[in-house]
Write a structure and sequence with these properties.
The complex is a heterodimer of chains A (about 170) and B (about 100). In chain A, about 35% of the residues lie in helices and about 15% in strands. Chain A is an alpha/beta fold. Chain A is globular. Chain B is mostly helical. Chain B is built from 5 helices and no strands. Classes of the chains: A alpha/beta (about 170), B mainly alpha (about 100). At the A-B interface, helix 1 and helix 4 of A face helix 4 and helix 5 of B.
């Protein structure tokens, strides 16, 4: 087997709880199947790897057309949560709590735990330099899984030959 | 001398069709095919766990179930079965492809 292993790179640009998981789940599956995995966290996606945010990621019911009452386990079919209700203080916290509880009941790891698993499994993770400069983020603000902060050009160089997934 | 393994059937992905045909000797041979020359005590700890849970539930455990079930860390699991432990462990343990996502 002299062939280069398959490579996948994920660009994580979203910091919502629901948008954190796709890359983590696919990345973990890829590692388990012997695929080389790289993560690049940019803009809101940096929330996933910031110590201050990783345990506080949220999902907002406002302006989310997929967010139906039935997600809360109520037999209400296509009945949505009215946006006017979504803006009530506590609704975002409630939705986030609900999603986290549901994931926990399915034995899905938290985002923090997932990142540790991925890091231990050999995935490489980088922060986006431009966003880091823009938000004034420091090295010590990141979880230890972040190897370094790199430019977009560095990312392009280091993912040569990889399949790139933008989330 | 190795025993005769010609009677054992594998599917197109290389997983054993019948987990009941599995023996420790077969595991040694399958491990070599997967690039693991010697199965150490830690390798066996994982295989034994997979055999136990796999035969009881009919499903291969996922990587996370293996790490929580055996107490072996993710890092060590990937070191023991490098480059794709999910399929490797299941193959060597004579079980089917793991179905879970985590």
């Amino acid at each position: 087997m002299t062939d280069q292993p398959r490579r996948i790179a994920f660009i994580c640009s979203k910091g919502d709880l629901d948008m954190a998981y796709p890359a983590l789940i696919m990345g973990w599956a890829a590692l388990g199947n012997g695929v080389d995995v790289t993560f690049f966290f940019t803009f809101w996606g940096l929330d996933l790897v910031k110590k201050s945010r990783v345990d506080r990621l949220e999902i907002a019911p406002v302006a989310n057309t997929s967010f139906k009452m039935s997600m809360m386990g109520l037999p209400t079919g296509n009945l949505g949560i009215p946006n006017a209700m979504g803006i009530i203080p506590g609704m975002t916290a409630f939705s986030s709590w609900f999603m986290k509880t549901k994931m926990k009941s399915l034995d899905v790891p938290t985002v923090r735990e997932y990142l540790e698993m991925l890091h231990d499994g050999g995935a490489r993770m980088y922060g986006c330099k431009m966003t880091v400069d823009m938000f004034g983020i420091k090295k010590e603000d990141f979880l230890p899984c972040i190897e370094s902060v790199v430019t977009a050009s560095d990312f392009v160089d280091m993912t040569e030959g990889a399949q790139i997934i933008f989330i | 001398m190795l025993a005769d393994f010609t009677a054992i059937a594998f599917n197109e992905e290389g997983f054993m069709n019948d987990p009941n045909q599995w023996t420790k000797e077969i595991a040694e041979v399958l491990a070599k095919q997967e690039g693991i020359e010697t199965l150490t005590a830690d390798h066996w700890k994982i295989i034994d766990y997979c055999r136990q849970t796999g035969m009881a539930s009919g499903k291969s455990p996922t990587l996370r179930q293996i790490t929580t079930g055996t107490g072996i860390s993710t890092k060590d699991l990937f070191a023991l079965y490098p480059k794709g432990p999910a399929k490797k462990v299941a193959k060597i343990a004579g079980l089917g492809k793991p179905e879970g996502c985590v």
